[in-house]
Specification:
Helix 2 (98-104) crosses helix 3. The chain folds into two domains: 2-129, Jelly Rolls; 133-211, Arc Repressor Mutant, subunit A, CATH 1.10.10.10. By secondary structure, it is an alpha+beta fold. The protein is globular, with a radius of gyration of 18 Å. The protein has helices at 2-11, 98-104, 106-132, 135-150, 163-170, 174-186, 204-211, and strands at residues 19-23, 28-30, 38-44, 47-52, 58-64, 69-70, 81-84, 88-94, 156-158, 190-192, 198-201. Helices cover 42% and strands 24% of the residues. The protein is built from seven helices and eleven strands. The protein has a four-stranded antiparallel β-sheet with strand order 1-8-3-6. Strands 2-7-4-5 form a four-stranded antiparallel β-sheet. It has a three-stranded antiparallel β-sheet with strand order 9-11-10. Residues 23-119 form the Cyclic nucleotide-binding domain.
Length: 212
């Protein structure tokens, strides 16, 4: 999959410090074990990073949304795979140029530092969520986090991912995710539009109570 990334880079127009890559839904950006030659920033759309278990199950580690920086590794290989949730545009930066980039551009240095700390905080929160929270608490936490990351008013937003993605991120079945979302809607906590990924938060306080 690293070869495909290189092909995109060769065809993409050069940008100020990186190269733009356009991916279609389901297209892979890199695979687990690929050389971590580049790191990335999302321009539009969403990327999911994940691992496939030996029995074929998928665990989604994180969703990377507009502005997020990801793919910086401590070692020389990517520890997760990454693919487009829908149509996506990212900018790829050569890892070998990281030191020069942060020296030449203090604003970019601050972005990388903020992104690194934020990714660490989200990874810690995700570990707690998987290990200690009930299904209802997991979904309440997820909805509040997505509202904060996606929506300007935090009350209404369109999820970029499908329910199967949510299930694989939260360690639940798709049936459990659908059942709890419907229960939240019946209880007046959220508003769901039929055949839509649109979510309205109707009772934020109650959701925050589940998130505590």
């Amino acid at each position: 999959m690293q070869v495909r990334t290189a092909i995109h880079l060769n065809r993409a127009p050069a940008m100020a410090a990186g190269a733009q890559i356009v991916l279609r839904k389901g297209e892979q950006l890199f695979d687990e074990g690929d050389e971590a030659e580049f790191f990335y920033q999302v321009v539009s759309g969403a990327i999911r990073s994940y691992k496939l278990m030996s029995d074929g199950r998928r665990q989604i580690d994180a969703f990377h949304l507009r502005g997020d920086i990801f793919g910086l590794e401590a070692g020389g290989e990517h520890r997760f795979s990454a693919e487009a949730v829908g149509d996506v545009s990212v900018v790829a930066y050569r890892r070998s140029r990281l030191e020069a980039l942060i020296q030449d551009d203090p604003a970019f240095r601050d972005k990388v530092m903020t992104a690194t700390l934020r990714n660490l905080a989200r990874a810690q929160a995700h570990m707690l969520l998987l290990g200690r929270k009930t299904a209802e608490e997991k979904i309440a936490t997820f909805l509040l986090d997505m509202a904060e990351r996606i929506s300007k008013d935090d009350e209404h937003f369109d999820l970029p991912m499908q329910r199967c993605d949510i299930a694989d991120h939260l360690g639940l079945t798709i049936e459990t995710v659908s059942r709890i979302l419907s229960r939240f809607a019946r209880s007046g906590l959220i508003r769901l539009l039929p055949a839509s990924r649109s979510i309205g938060l109707c009772n934020r306080m109650a959701l925050q109570g589940l998130n505590a």
